[in-house]
Amino acid sequence: MRKMLTLLLPVLLAVFGTTAWADQQDMDLVTGEHWVKSSLDQKRAFIFGIGNVLEIEEAMAGDDYEAMRGRSIVPVLLEGLSGTSVESVVTQLDKFYAGHPDQTSRPVIEVLYLEMALPNL
Q1: Are 31 and 93 in contact (CB under 8 A)?
Q2: What is the tens place of the pLDDT at every residue in 46-82?
Q3: How far apart are CA 26 and CA 85, in angstroms?
């Protein structure tokens, strides 16, 4: 896992360091507005990053993982998106925002949680 993070971090910094995302000094959350303007590589990197954070949170919780239920989005995202490839997540998010242009202000993490992960549980 550390090896993967060590390899992925420079890629994430390179990809996101050159985008409009990096130009914003006080960004709260990545929304559909950001998503639809992003390249495929940026989208993949974002999803890989979320996946890594989820895996780290799960590992750090250890025996307390079950206690996270109801207090954290981590179990819902991990279990609801289990077995879903990065490409599939990107495709589903693309379809969601294309089909709901009035909802591009919704954060990507919210769409992942409410529209993709939660219905799979």
Answers
A1: no
A2: 999 999 999 999 999 998 889 998 899 999 999 999 9
A3: 31
Backbone angles phi, psi at 107, to 5 degrees: -65, 145
**Helix residue ranges per DSSP H, 62-85:** 74-80
pLDDT at residue 28, rounded to an integer? 75
How far does Cα 49 stand from its chain's mean position?
A: 7
Contact between residue 97 and residue 70 where contact means Cβ atoms under 8 Å apart:
no
Tens digit of each residue's pLDDT (9 = 90 or more) over 7-54 = 444 444 444 454 554 555 565 799 999 999 999 999 999 999 999 999
Q: Where are the alpha helices (DSSP H) in the chain?
A: 2-17, 20-23, 32-37, 40-61, 74-80, 86-99, 108-111
Neighbours of 47 (CB within 10 A): 21
Q: Domain map of the chain by residue range? A: 2-120
Neighbours of 106 (CB within 10 A): 19
